[in-house]
Specification:
Elements lengths: L1 E4 L2 E4 H6 L5 H4 L2 E6 L4 H13 L8 E5 L12 H19 L4 E6 L2 E3 L3 H12 L6 E3 L14 E3 L9 E5 H16 L12 H11 L5 E4 L4 E3 L15 H20 L2
């Protein structure tokens, strides 16, 4: 298979040779969603980036997440803050005409498998036929996986490690703005969790190809949630104990085969 270049036919292999070798360099910008007061999560996320070899500070930006006192029709104040934060990132990418953007949440645990698969991931992304790519997900039911990225039409919960291609950034911004303007429970999609909004967009636009990493390249660290808080997280002493338990549980999970 060849493509016609300036100086004649160019093989796919030659094109792939010109692609960046690290996933971080493939995207115009990588944003990490982080509430300003969650310095614990920022430190842990910085450590994850170092372990992954993603140390190019010019390409990674910690985005100050929004926080609200009023849910304004969303399932909760945390859900509203998460939704508005992701929307603000995409609006920024739209304004700056980014060709593609990678979004991480600050509780992401990056799989050790990532570095070995980056070249293959980039080669697949370079086909420019996709809209969404979920590098991390919460165990979607994927049939007959085709590494490293598998087309997937089902729901994908959580947005801790996903990418959006430039052609779809503006379209998704318009859709999320519509969601914000509607009443809760609107059949076309009113205020909801942002991962549900992206799934709603995908359902309404089946031509927008979604790719999912196989195997999963990112999970969520065990950490106190700012979106759905359990009762024991509100009690200072118990909340601290719960955080230590989550960290120990996360280490056990990541070290198990």
């Amino acid at each position: 298979m060849t493509e016609l270049g300036v100086d004649g036919p160019t093989s796919v292999a030659a094109i792939e040779q010109r692609l960046p070798k690290r996933l971080l360099k493939y995207f115009d910008r990588t944003f990490v969603v982080n509430l300003a007061h969650r310095t614990d999560r920022r430190r842990e996320m910085e450590a994850e980036l170092v372990k992954a070899g993603w140390t190019d500070a010019e390409r990674v930006e910690f985005f100050p997440a929004y926080k609200f006192d009023d849910a304004a029709g969303f399932p909760g104040v945390g859900a509203r803050g998460c939704f508005v934060s992701h929307l603000a990132i995409l609006k920024r990418a739209q304004r700056e005409r980014m060709r593609s953007v990678l979004v991480l949440e600050d509780d992401l645990a990056i799989s050790p498998l990532l570095q070995a698969s980056e070249a293959a991931l980039i080669a697949r992304l370079a086909r420019d036929d996709w809209a969404f790519t979920y590098f991390g997900h919460s165990d979607p039911e994927i049939l007959e996986p085709t590494p490293p990225l598998t087309p997937f039409a089902g729901p994908v919960t959580c947005l801790h490690f996903y990418a959006l291609r430039g052609e779809y950034i503006g379209r998704l911004v318009d859709f999320l703005e519509l969601v914000l303007s509607r009443q809760p429970g609107d059949p076309l999609g009113g205020p909801m969790h942002v991962d549900g909004a992206l799934h709603t967009y995908r359902q309404q636009n089946p031509h927008a190809l979604t790719l999912v990493a196989t195997p999963n390249l990112g999970t969520q660290r065990s950490s106190r949630s700012d979106i759905s808080t359990a009762w024991f997280d509100k009690v200072p002493v118990l909340g601290t104990a719960a955080g230590l338990y989550r960290r120990a549980k996360g280490l056990r999970t990541r070290s198990s085969p």
